């Protein structure tokens, strides 16, 4: 997956000012940045939620312009948003069933006793697990996650990161947007740092750590 | 036949109305569950389908079966899909709030009624073809159930069961609920939300059409009666809280049977007219009760603030100038034209009441026509000497006393507004307006024996128009004072963020009561002037359908624009006087349906255009930007502080 000179506007405000970045298949890519840096906009642009005013989004070597969000999802893209990632009026089983009827992702056994509960009645962390499980069940070729650890216990976050590396090892592309780089993600292939809608750094996590020191 | 036999016969007769009401309720619930929109246009869609069926069968002599298939399985669903594509989908894509969606629904309602008036006129037709003959089916004990009632009942039960099963147990049903829950997220989950919501609209429109063609043979088919009747059956959907199909079915049937059984109730003396009014309007009473019971208003618990168009600027000055010229112009008119113009200041005051309640206070009120009617009826009763203990009063004291009495009645909608928001409040206000129209204005004491004259006022139209202008000026001053200073800021805060306003120390409940009482007073003043202008009390002038047209007009003009309300009144009266009946409704309805593309209405559009015209051109490379005096001072200060 690759972005070339992508610009995104929200009304009069330009959120991305010509972003170029590449996320290799089979590895985990981390987009780092503060609030307002544009990392969520990058994910939403790739998923087709917002349309770029200029530039190209390439996936599997093809330009994705004009492809609706649901067509991208059917083609194997999944986005787990940072907030409200579940259908609150549907049960947990129905939420998961939208991706794969009758199955629950084994990485989240915590969800098994909650299958008949309405997702809107769960805690924030449980809702996040439902959103992640639904995305993983779709077996996406490109998985985009916006701060997936938000609301989860540290042990669950570590388990999630392990799982994401396993997903990437199957040849799939995994992209996470985070505010900071946790130790469990240091094995990521690429880190892109966004600042005020521009790429400020692209490289290996070790290079970034060297710069910070 | 004994009492028990009579009870059973009445119950069987009541099932006819009850099953139609249940079907209407199921249609509303299904559309809401499928699209997330309370389809206020359902009654108008029902009316349009019934007219089309009559046109094909009676006028063009099509076979009934073929015409029914074309109307119910082709035209009605196509109308639903068209509404989705042209009106509601653009709103959803823009992330419009429930207020705009509701106004768009009212716009469709008004547009379809206006189109029906233009095409078929207002004369009622009594020859709408029945889908099923009313053959009597003999029951044990000699009781009779009509075939059409049995078919209606079976249709309701089959439809409700099928929808319930599809919604709960099929993949399509889960996807449909996912789209209603969170459209954007559903698309990210690979659901084609557009196709799903189109299917929901097509099905909702089919049920609306079915209600129309089933009910039309029992009524005189006209553009106003059937839509309003279907809207009254909204009681069924509200009782079901827009969710439960079994509750909708049971409530519809129970109300139909109860209405039939109540015909036996004959209390002695003065209670008889009241009992008869309640029996005839049981669905209105039920709507009022259902709307007043605690309810969050479906899944939408947010406010219904409409996007404002901003304030002030050159656009506002231009609007005020145009407004002044327009209202002064009729003073030079010929006598016949001036008679039409008498309605402009009166209607402007009624529309200003909507500006105060909805535009400034952020409280959607669909019942302002009721307060206008109270002002008109009060003036007429006081002038006719029909108020016990009071002699017949001249026009001015009668008008002022009617307004003074109506102001505290603003609590009828103001009090429920304290604990209600969103859809729940909109429905309460509509129910109050409808109840006033049916239970107060449509009664014999209000429709016969009242005399309204301009006794004590200038009797000529020119003099009366001048008095109207003075009162309009007073109304505008009141509105201006409500929108300025500390009170204005508190109102704006309440409209934009109720919880935030409370946290900032604004007494929100008191403010709500104030806007509803001020709105009631302005509407009553306008209504009283309407009665004096026409020298009669006309209950149809304050019909709830009229109220919806007025509400849509204000929102189209710009809900927070007082000048817009006056211009809109002139436009409505001008269109009604100068064009065919129905044109004004078509224009207002069409504009309301595209409101999603012009936030703030026409006033917002004008303000933005004026702002664009006054913004200096961007400086070219190497050129200094032209600054205002404030901008120059700010730049100097920044330069002084720069290291």
Automatic annotation (TrEMBL), chain B:
- The species this protein belongs to is Kitasatospora paracochleata
Q: Which UniProt keywords apply?
A: Amino-acid transport, Cell membrane, Membrane, Transmembrane, Transmembrane helix, Transport
Membrane-traversing stretches: 62-87, 99-121, 149-167, 201-220, 240-259, 271-295, 315-333, 340-361, 392-411, 423-441, 463-479, 513-537, 549-573, 580-598
Q: What is the lineage of its organism?
A: Bacteria, Bacillati, Actinomycetota, Actinomycetes, Kitasatosporales
Q: Name one Pfam family in it.
A: BPD_transp_2
Tell me where in or outside the cell this protein is found. Cell membrane
Assigned protein family:
Belongs to the binding-protein-dependent transport system permease family. LivHM subfamily.
Q: What is its main location?
A: membrane
InterPro entries assigned to the protein according to its UniProt record, in alphabetical order: ABC_transp_permease, BCAA_transport_permease, LivM-like
State the name under which the record lists this protein. Branched-chain amino acid transport system permease protein
Classify the protein's membrane topology as the record does: Multi-pass membrane protein
Q: Which domain of life is it from?
A: Bacteria
